[in-house]
Amino acid sequence: MASSLGVFGQRAKLEKADKLFNSYAFYEAAGLYERILEKEDITQAKINLAECYRLTQDFEKAEFWYSQAVGKSSINPIFKLYYGQMLQSNGKCQEAEYWFREYARLRPEDSRGIRFEAACDQMVGYYSDEGRYTLAPLAFNTPFSDFAPAFYEGGLVFVSAREDGRGGDQVSAWSGEPFLDLFYAVETDQGFREPERFGGTALNSKHHEGPLSFSADGQKIFFTRNNSVSESVKEENARTVRLKIFTAERSGRNNWGKVEELDFNSGDYSNSAPALLATGDVMVFSSTMPGGFGGSDLYMSKLVEGRWSKPVNLGGGINTEGDEMFPFLHADSTLYFSSDGHAGLGGLDVFYADPEEGSWRKTQNMGWSLNSRWDDFGLIWDQDRTKGYFASNRPGGSGGDDLYTMTHNWVRVNGLVVDALTNEPLPGADVRIIGGPSDKNLVADEKGEFALDLPKDIAVALLANHEGYANGRKEIQTPLLGATETILIPLELDRIKINIHALDSETRKPIPGVSFTWDNSCSGTSDRFESNDQGRLSMPISRSCDYTLGARVEGYADAVLPVSRTALVRDSETDVFVELNPVHTGMTVELHNIYYDFDEDFIRQDGEQDLIQLAEFMRRNAGITIELGSHTDARGSKAYNRKLSQQRAESAVAYLVKLGVEPERVVAMGYGESEVRNRCADDVTCTDQEHQFNRRTQFRITGMNQEINSTDKEQIPVNTGKRAK
User: Does 412-489 match 588-711 in CATH topology?
Assistant: First the structure.
């Protein structure tokens, strides 16, 4: 009998706990579930208890109770997602990733699983923004909930559950706290004065009053109020009573006229947290109306002829399968809001989206300097975005949700990437910021615009590039206060038409049939082209690279001409003239040197190309004979050096013969150390590089009594040890 009574008692307690839970009395239900679970293992009771703690923001207890139940195969996958969120909020990102993957596997149509798993990988990026803001709790916080600030006449109006709000002991079954009312705190040079109730009985009812917004002149208020619990309707995975948006006009210093509902409210879903644009004709708010992306979505309504239009969902760039709440519209139309559906640090994070043609762009996380592993929400900024306020339930506060002030230590930098000739914007341009706390990479939007926050008074470089354009660079000094004027980065068209003209150096007449080699420093490629019968070649090239132009034709010495990108000015077309010297008696022709390792006579790999070019020159000019004169440095005896230089000259001759040059057209001559080209004579201390300068082979045209001298390399490798093939 006693056992039966015990079972009956447990069942009665469970029924009572479930009734409290379904009536959103989470505070009381949690205590009852705890007592039930001390005596009996009931999976659904564990889930409900975890839900009580999640919805009252006790994430550590929520994590524990989810962990006791989520392994069951019968559990709704949504609780696996919630468990992952609790783990993430409690700093256990690696464990959270597993449960996010599980949720993604079971509910592939819901992107939150993949998005939250990615968020854990992105945590390093979010943590790197420390130092951007300075945060401090407000002195008037209480152990109860204080949140949802709004600017009003030199102070803040905010929402609070503090005990003096209603003058009685009535509490909310959901949170166990007094009902929410509106309070007003005036800010002075010494800080905020003690808050007072705001709006009297006109604005504060027997229900909760919640997030609010004022018109720019402060004469009209829009605020949230809930239905009674008895009027609520249970929704899947959402246990909130219906919320509606109301408005009232000011009729005195602290008197407000008749409170009226907005037309788009409904008893079938919740509307809350209205935010007004400075112009007063656009409102963004949070709603659970059908047809959205998830729980609470952000919607926009416009004031048309005195009536608020049918709300429009802000779309997938803003909304997710989770909850988007607490919007705020800055004076520059930037949208700030909180979300647990975008990749973040845990709980609710604050995000922002820049304005774009009546809507807003892709969402960006505000970073670790503001967000935490707990709930952070309800951010508002002043005109210059230098000081703001928000709410958080992070540790270290007075209890529950607390209000924080936030000082912005950085400044906003706005940029625009344009075509240098037309001034048209370049959408999708890549922008790299060098300097500041770390290098950053951005992508300009569809208008060619970009924006970022940077520390005050620092020098940074903005590098921009876009397909089809040369790279652009702008050096700036960030301002000390406020937003900077837009930084313009013009990009020049990358492609430029180059016209190459081959001319006889003596007659200045065009040379037809010239073979050109075109070496590209960016790609490392080498292309071959031939001039037309007017000695001309035209082609498009990139402005962003350096080039080397080689020219050769029978009867002329080879020519090499560097083409620097600095010479490729913003004109759409440029001309390059290459003068070739005709081969005749008495002329001097410059060719590259052939260098040797110390005490070696083999042909190095870095000399192969020079000898190949010389062989081609001789094939084009069949009547020329040459002498290869080899030289050493001054180290060693004169006799030894003469012998070594002769061996080096003969190695070069042998290499040319291997390339097909007739032996009778080439003579080897060793000059030893007789013709050093610098100060490094006998008994002079020199570096290896200086000695290397003397170890060379020179070419002289003997059939015409013309010398072919070497063009010295700027950087000569020392002792490579690499033989030519």
Answer: no
The rounded distance, in Å, linking the Cα atoms of 649 and 362 is: 69
Q: Can you name the CATH fold of 412-489?
A: Immunoglobulin-like (2.60.40)
Question: Beta 387-392 vs 376-381: how paired, if at all?
Answer: antiparallel
Q: How far apart are CA 32 and CA 26, in angstroms?
A: 10
- Tokens 């909310």 map to which residue? 172
With beta carbons less than 8 A apart as the criterion, state whether 63 and 55 touch: no
Distance of CA 315 to the CA centre of its chain: 22
* Among 227, 215, 337, CA closest to 276: 215
For residues 117 and 98, give the distance between their C-alpha atoms in angstroms, rounded to a whole number.
Answer: 8
Collapsing DSSP to helix, strand or coil, 235 comes out as: strand
- Any idea which residue has 């619990």 for tokens? 229
- On whether the CB atoms of residues 630 and 653 are closer than 8 A, the answer is no
Please give the radius of gyration of the chain, using alpha carbons only, rounded to the nearest integer.
Answer: 40
Domain 495-580 = CATH 3.40.50.150: no
Contact, 149 vs 377, CB < 8 A?
no
Nearest to 242 by CA among 173, 296, 294, 279: 296
- 332 — phi, psi (to 5°)? -90, 10
- The whole-angstrom separation of Cα 659 and Cα 655 is 6
What's the gap between Cα 515 and its chain centre? Answer: 47
H-run or E-run covering 104: helix 93-106
Cα–Cα distance between 641 and 294 in angstroms, integer? 87
What is the C-alpha to C-alpha distance for residues 550 and 602, in angstroms, rounded to an integer? Answer: 27
* Nearest partner of 79 among 232, 188, 237, judged by Cα: 237
> Where does 374-471 show beta strands of DSSP type E?
376-381, 387-392, 402-408, 410-419, 430-434, 440-443, 449-455, 459-465
What angle in degrees, to the nearest 10, is found between the helix axes of 2-22 and 43-55? 40
Contacts with 306 (C-beta within 8 Å, 6 or more apart), sequence order: none
Centroid of chain to Cα 214: 34
Residue 238's pLDDT is what?
A: 40
What is the distance in angstroms between the CA of the first residue and the CA of the last residue of the chain? Answer: 102
Closest CA to 142 of 400, 406, 380, 404: 400
Q: How far is CA 7 from CA 10, 12, 16, 29, in A?
A: 5, 9, 14, 19
Q: Where are the domains of the chain?
A: 2-121, 133-408, 412-489, 495-580, 588-711
Instruction: Answer whether 257's CB lies under 8 Å from 284's CB.
Output: no
- Residues of the chain scoring pLDDT < 50: 1-5, 165-168, 174, 229-240, 588, 591, 705-714
Burial readout 1-31 (b: 16 or more C-beta within 10 A, e: otherwise): eeeeeeeeeeeebbeebbebbebbbbbbbbe
CATH number given to 2-121: 1.25.40.10
Token pair for residue 597? Answer: 């390792």
Cα–Cα distance, 188 to 127 (Å, whole number): 34
* Fold adopted by 588-711: 60s Ribosomal Protein L30; Chain: A; (3.30.1330)
pLDDT at 363: 84
Instruction: Find how far residue 253's CA is from the centre of its chain.
Output: 47
Backbone angles phi, psi at 407, to 5 degrees: -100, 130
Q: How far apart are CA 4 and CA 409, in angstroms?
A: 67
Q: Each residue of 58-71: pLDDT tens digit? A: 888 999 999 888 88
Question: Is residue 541 within 8 Å of residue 547, measured between CB atoms?
Answer: yes
- Please give the CATH architecture assigned to the domain spanning 133-408: 6 Propeller (2.120)
